[in-house]
Amino acid sequence: MYDFVFWIGIAAALFITVANVPQVVKIVKSGDVKSISVLTYSALVLGNALWLVYGVLKQDVPILVANAISTLLCTAILLLKLFPKLIASVQDKTMKNN
């Protein structure tokens, strides 16, 4: 039973973590942050950060890793919303690397 529960947790962590990647890519490609909610992403950053602290305190590596990545992705989205000039900077660097 433990293995099944463990893998359910891993799958959940993977899906929740990866869920933010398309939004980051879309923002960087389009430069459009009009529909991004500051309140939603502020809550997501705070929630993920608290889960990260929980993972550290419980020494639960899957929770720790998933929420560290999710916190970074949600923070990136929030920063791109709050500071739209960052998008142009990221787009310039991306174009130079291609």
Could you give a short description of this structure?
With 98 residues, the protein is mostly helical. It is built from five helices and no strands.
> What value does the average pLDDT take?
89
What is the alpha-carbon Rg in Å? 16 Å
Total DSSP E strands:
0
Largest sheet, strands/sense/barrel: none
What top-tier CATH class fits best? Mainly Alpha
Corresponding CATH architecture: Up-down Bundle
Task: Please tell me the total number of domains.
Answer: 1
Report the helical percentage.
over 70%
Beta-strand content estimate: under 5%
**Beginning-to-end CA distance, first to last residue:** 48 Å
Task: Fill in the CATH topology.
Answer: Monooxygenase
Stretches where pLDDT falls below 50 for ≥5 residues? none
Shape: elongated
Write down the secondary-structure element order. Answer: HHHHH
What does this structure look like?
- It is a single chain.
- With 98 residues, the protein is an all-alpha fold.
- The protein has a single domain, classed as Up-down Bundle (Monooxygenase), CATH 1.20.1280.290.
- The protein has 5 helices and no strands.
- The chain has helices at residues 2-18, 21-30, 38-58, 61-82, 85-97.
